[in-house]
Amino acid sequence: MSTPAVELRDVRKNFGRTEIIRGVSLSIARGERHAIIGPNGAGKTTLFNLISGRFPISSGLIAVDGRSIASLAPQAINRLGLSRSFQITSIFPRMTVFENIRCGLLWSQGYRYSFWHLLGQQKELNRAAEGLLERLKLADRRNLQAGLLSYAEQRALEIGITIAGGAEIILLDEPTAGMSHSETDSAVELIRSVSEGKTLIMVEHDMSVVFGLADCITVLVYGEVIASDAPAAIRSNGAVQEAYLGTVVA
Amino acid sequence: MSMLRRHWLWLLVLFVLLAFPFLFYDWAKGRHSGFVLTLMSEIGVMAIFALSYNMLMGQAGLLSFGHAVLFGLGAYCAAHVVNLVKAGTIWLPTELVPLAGGLGGLFFGYVLGWLVTKQRATAFAMITMGLGELVSAAALMFLSFFGGEGGISVDRVMNTSMFGVSYSSPWQVYCLVLAWAFIAAALMRLQTQTPLGCLANATRDNFERAQFVGYDPRVVRLLQFALSGFFAGIGGGLYVLIYEIVTFDTVSAAKSANALLAVYIGGAGGFFGPILGTIVVVLLQSGVSLLSNAWLLYVGVLFIVMVMYAPGGIIGLIFMHVPIWRTGRLRELLMPYARAFPPALLVMLGFVLLVELASFTTIGAAQGKKFTIGGNTIDTTAPLPWVIALAALVLGALWLRREARGFRLRWDELIEGAKRQGAVS
Questions:
Q1: Chain B: residue whose CA lies nearest to A76
Q2: What is the ipTM of this complex?
Q3: pTM for this one?
């Protein structure tokens, strides 16, 4: 059996005396689209913050591609090929849309902290950034300050920055939150296409998005995994229905 | 040819700056005005300093209160190098002395930056302030490097020029300052277009997001800080060549404040803003300070007015007009501006008169100076001048408020028009 893309073993996280994540074990296979669902306050976003290195874990083990990420800074985890988006839009508001995307590309293209390359002359880099803008349908917003984009466009840009570096493991935190129906539909199409052949882990509240995209669903309630299975099995799982789904999906 | 087309503005400015001192040339005696040349050299040096400060403030969002440390330490390094060259210990062309200052600034920028860039925002500002005090204190303690209160004196006539120039005259030094100012400005301009320059913007906007695209914001800040030290040090090296002495004033908080003032007044948003700010600040400092005891007050008031009413600085005010200019209706602002000018002038005159009356009754009297306007001595103890000043200020302000309302209406209308035509970006 190949190494899972992301593996969590008895992960715990407490803030002070409050335990938010209470012994989560989870294995996410390479190439899988994995959704994490659960009621508000279940610890989904905290789980993302742990996997991406934003917070250190209190105990347990998180491995990315078989490598423990304990004590790694977020940027080091990102360089392992794991990239995340944020629930509350996190972009570079005073830079142009194009520059935002290019920032997401720089490290993976090997520019590191260079102050001897002129960005305007990096044809390949700029072409890659333009290509991604096309895919995000933001090409005509290219030179606009990112902070001036509409909400849905900012969400698309958020996803764009996340995937720009070509990460093999993509974490999306509520990518469609606050979107209208039509916006959600195009966001789902975007997520489907950008996660092709990659490992996708996403937190999502919109059940039509979850069941439309995910190969596997984990249900998190009060910091514990109560089920982790294929969508059909989750739908018919009694415990899940009782804890969460029953009231949401008819 | 395309180079010429793209960089014509730089060339034009260079030409104007070379020609400008000749307006004050004394043809009878056949020499330049020393005052004008020193003033312009000072502007050149301070422009480099302010631009290097903006690498932190504008580009990386780092508010430093101790930027003069890098300028001053670069200057001290350059001064020691000049003395070593003079003594024959090492050889270096005079033209490259600023580079020695730059390398000194780079070195200290990296070492000190390693300390200060662990933090950002308020903590960064506080640490740089402490650092400034620390180095100022050290300057009076480590005599061999800083030369104590007397500083380090040098003789810039080293006879090691690459072009056979003696640098005995201020004109020759001015040309060197100009050359380096252009080189430094061009390099700093290019730096904004490199990955590091772009990442400095990214960490300014959202340092956490920068981490999640693979970058360590601390490293970005450190490199940006060190590079800004390099350019500040170049300014310091030129300072040594102009004044032939470097004292602990160059590392002082007052010097740091100068960069901050220049950047705020000129505007941190556009690359050239700090240069405009520098010109204003240096003219106030070197020109107005000769005329008035209260010059520092004018700097302060200008600073407050800019921060309150034009947070984008002079360059921000200029950029505001771009959309209207694009629609070709800039002409329509001429009249409103002309109407606002007399009351604005009246307010300024009233204010200046008040300040000067006050300053002559206190400091001026202590110095035994008399307040004279056009040969007439003004009695600062009589009520009439005070009444006139106050009246000018108050009436001017009321009049200005009236005109400002009309101006505002016209302005909004033009901007609205520009928006409709899609000229606002």
A1: B214
A2: 0.93
A3: 0.94
